[in-house]
């Protein structure tokens, strides 16, 4: 028996199929970043898990519920210039890293120099030594960096983590916007990403890495505030220096980062929807903290 379908119903059915095709295409282009990786639910914490995502971190790591947390939205209208806050002093950052371990720990790509060179910054008269740098990136061009400038997001953020002799932490944050051409300074990292495809993979740098090329031109202006680590346990007392100028990262280089996995490589089916993307913590409340801007002396 033939069943006639009203013209209005035909249009509704057609619209449904168009929407379904469009959503499928969208998920394909974005890597399906909004689809949950079930294996992440078994981790102590994750960025997209239902039971262990950012909104739940404080259940296991109480500091994550405290008031001096990072990252934050830096609102230009509320920032005050501090004449006593001079440019950051980077020591030995121009000396290329000749040896470093590059690791996929399931949450980020981490680069730990081990060439014996002391690379330091001076913060409030104290010397902090570079421990490592790691990266946060998104599945698209407007999200991935952890800090926001007037609620504007960027594609990536690099954190240069420094520690002093007492164990205090100072982090330099640099935001990156997506660009058509590659950042040549990032290439030594890009060329080993294929070797750390899965969680637990490690590799060695094959080319010298000039960290100064990952920073905006020195001396750089920066925002200063007191915050925390942006991953559990969210330790507070961290001195943040966030570069005001935004650097650039190539679209192809971002694609390579987005191809990493947040899980071990045990079978195609087991790692479905588990690309390491959108590994950034949502912005935290400022809670009355002051954000100041350095004066730049050339």
From TrEMBL:
One of its GO terms (molecular function) is carbonate dehydratase activity. It comes from the Eukaryota. It is an enzyme of class 4 (lyase). It catalyses: hydrogencarbonate + H(+) = CO2 + H2O. InterPro entries: CA_dom, CA_dom_sf, Carbonic_anhydrase_a-class. Belongs to the alpha-carbonic anhydrase family. PANTHER family: CARBONIC ANHYDRASE. This is carbonic anhydrase. The lineage of its organism: Eukaryota, Metazoa, Ecdysozoa, Arthropoda, Chelicerata.
């Amino acid at each position: 028996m033939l069943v006639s379908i009203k013209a209005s119903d035909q249009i509704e059915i057609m619209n449904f199929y168009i929407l379904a095709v469009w959503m499928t295409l969208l998920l394909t282009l974005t890597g399906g970043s909004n689809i949950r990786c079930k294996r992440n639910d078994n981790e102590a914490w994750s960025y997209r898990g239902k039971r262990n995502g950012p909104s739940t971190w404080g259940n296991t790591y109480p500091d994550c519920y405290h008031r001096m947390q990072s990252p934050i939205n830096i609102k230009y209208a509320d920032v005050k210039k501090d004449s006593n806050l001079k440019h950051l002093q980077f020591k030995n950052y121009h000396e290329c890293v000749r040896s470093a371990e590059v690791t996929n720990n399931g949450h980020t790509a981490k680069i730990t120099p081990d060439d014996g060179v002391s690379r330091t910054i001076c913060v409030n008269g104290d010397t902090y030594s570079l421990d490592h740098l790691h990266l946060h990136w998104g599945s698209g061009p407007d999200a991935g960096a952890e800090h926001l400038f007037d609620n504007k997001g960027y594609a990536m953020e690099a954190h240069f983590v420094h520690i002093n002799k007492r164990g205090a932490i100072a982090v330099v944050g640099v935001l990156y916007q997506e660009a058509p051409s590659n950042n040549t300074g990032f290439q030594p990292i890009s060329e080993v990403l294929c070797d750390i495809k899965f969680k637990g993979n490690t590799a060695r740098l094959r080319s010298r890495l000039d960290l100064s090329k990952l920073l905006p031109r020195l001396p750089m202006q920066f925002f200063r505030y007191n915050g925390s680590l942006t991953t559990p346990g969210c330790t507070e007392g961290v001195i943040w220096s966030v570069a005001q100028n935004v650097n650039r990262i190539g679209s192809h280089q971002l694609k390579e980062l987005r191809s990493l996995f947040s899980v071990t490589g045990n079978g195609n089916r087991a790692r479905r929807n588990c690309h390491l993307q959108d590994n950034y913590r949502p912005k935290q409340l400022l809670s009355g903290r002051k954000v100041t801007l350095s004066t730049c002396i050339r």
